[in-house]
Amino acid sequence: MALQIRNLHKSFGGQSALERIELDVGGAEFVCLLGPSGCGKTTLLRIIAGLMAADGGSVSLNGRDLAQMPARERGFGIVFQSYSLFPHMTVAQNVGYGLRIRGEAAATVDKRVAELLDMVKLPSFGARFPGELSGGQQQRVAIARALAVNPSLLLLDEPLSALDARVRADLRRELREVQRGLGIPTLMVTHDQEEAMSMADTIVCMNQGRIEQQGSPQDLYLRPRTRFVADFMGHSNLLPAALASALVPVLPPLPADIDAAGALLCIRPERIRLEPAAGARGEVTDIGFLGSIQRVRVRWGDQALLAETSSAMPLSVGQRVSLAIGAADCSWVTA
Ligand code: ATP
After folding, report:
1. Residue 246 has pLDDT above 90, yes or no
2. Residue 179's pLDDT band (boundaries 50, 70, 90)?
3. How many A from CA of 41 to the centre of ligand 1?
């Protein structure tokens, strides 16, 4: 493992911000720290960067403990949400900054800057100033600047969240492409579940200073273990066991680590099969068209459920529908 974090903790004025954090990031792995505001994501990133000291525990990179190493000696690439480029320097000067302060020759710096600007698809922008760039372009420059020094670790704190949806989608893909190409271990903070799912090899879902669950995007989506993770992964069909058994004829077996009393059944919306049927118990209350799929709200007794079907399925509000849900379409979580 490139980065190893063991039993890390941190408090502010007696309030715990991080508790017993254990985390590994592999050689070329892209890890997303996902969680709501205040859960400790930025604090964790700042400790790893060396911008803040932990109260206890260890952070090591390639077997070397970082406790005594100042931030500037760590050689990490860091990109923040706010573009934080030097406004009085050109794009090329910004990108070459880290190389110049290392004392690299001007020709070497120029060559590397040109390569990096190519990589982030801004080849002819070197002479511009940050104020003359869009938000997305500034963030590309910030990424190029972070990569200039061949960092041993890339730390990204919500780098895309100030951008509009289209630019953000492009940059997600490009950032991942660049990171894959260079094979740099990367930790990215985000509170956006979709962003984490589309980019991460591993998602680390945090709640109140603790790691609630970590695994591949598929793992967290298909097998959330707690209500918090299920909520955060966008699941809205969470039913108490008594109700669930009325709706799902064959329930999945309850895992040993989940207490039956508080268990909730998490039903995946795309797996609910709706069938128009006069007199059926379900009633369509709303339909949201999303292009190829539609999001269908169904009232079933007192329960509101969300289903996703192909948009080709003709449905209308007020229509009665039957619901078919099997054991493989759902999983148990703890409340
Ligand atoms: P956001 O997504 O809003 O940035 P976050 O998950 O990154 O949130 P942190 O910024 O790490 O959360 O904060 C975690 C907790 O620690 C919060 O309760 C915050 O108020 C507290 N905290 C963070 N930095 C400090 C500080 N310097 N002094 C006191 N409390 C702090």
Report:
1. no
2. very high
3. 8
Dihedral angle computed from the Cα positions of residues 127, 76, 17 and 160, in that order, rounded to the nearest 10 degrees: 40
Strands (E), 228-292: 238-240, 263-267, 273-276, 282-289
**16 pLDDT higher than 90:** yes
**Bridge partners for 21 per DSSP:** 8
Which atom of ligand 1 is the closest one to the Cα of 46? Answer: 11
Ligand 1 binding pocket mutation candidate from 16, 21, 41 (most atoms within 8 A of CB): 41
Q: Which residue is closest in CA terms to ligand 1's atom 2?
A: 37
**Confidence class of residue 311 from pLDDT cuts 50, 70 and 90?**
very high
Helices (H) and strands (E) in the chain, counts: 10, 18
Report how far ligand 1's centroid is from the alpha carbon of 42 (Å). Answer: 7
Dihedral in degrees, nearest 10, Cα atoms 68, 73, 79, 84:
110
Q: Which atom of ligand 1 is nearest to the CA of 191?
A: 2
Residue nearest to atom 7 of ligand 1 (CA): 42
Cα–Cα nearest to 66, from 147, 6, 143: 6
Containing H/E element for 141?
helix 135-147
Distance CA 229, CA 196 (A): 13
Query: What residue type is assigned to position 166 of the chain?
Result: R
